[in-house]
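From the shared-data thread, chain only:
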Amino acid sequence: FTLRDLSGAERAYEQAVETREWKQAPVAAIALGQLRSHKLGDARGAETAFELAIEFGNSDHTGRAAFLLGAIREDEFDDARGAADAYRRAVRSGDDHHGPSAAFNLGLLYAGVLDDPRRAEKAYRRAIKSGHDDAAPLSAMALADLREQRNDLPGAVEAYRWAIESDHAEVGPQAAFNLGVLLEENGNQPAAADAYRIAVGSGHSEQSPKASVALGLLLELRLGDPAGAADAFAQAIAAKHPVHSAEAVEHLARVSPAS
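Structure, as tokens:
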């Protein structure tokens, strides 16, 4: 698109917004905000457009507009408190998609720059409760990390298990590996082995071979099972991972010199 085309589109959206028609005006305001943000480089104008979309009060679009408003305040202006206000509006909207996503982003803000772990946990738990395909498992992982930082081992284990149970293709295997590490570091080797086996069984291109190596070392050095360790290292080698498979070759040579 030429700048002239984009300017024409911007004016068309502005005219649609100016009608204040309850159904179409908020849709046009959101489109206007996205055009200004992504194509015209006008972050302030985008912020104004998203605010207008919210002001129309159409519940079908409030959640999305508030989520986009929070994102632009956070990403473009480093306005954490303004972003949090917008994300809270998105959460309250009841939007099935943008509400949980906003709750996750809100949790990250509270866990980070706003430094309010209690509110971070509340936001994460709300996203988890929603069952959203992405926001729920991502929030479970973030909650586990938050609880680890606060030395809440049972709470972290609980949150990692929530992430694993989500069956999310990316988050689940990572949560299983992280759970294995946490349990191993805290002296629960059998449970750690079980967690590593979940990650191995996922077949994930990164987490599975990494967990195979961790499982092999645990079986060899802590649980006295060199045969099981050899099997785990062999599985890591079979994955042909550029780093973890090479590690496994060295470990397998140690536990099974004749192979």
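The two ends are 62 Å apart (CA to CA).
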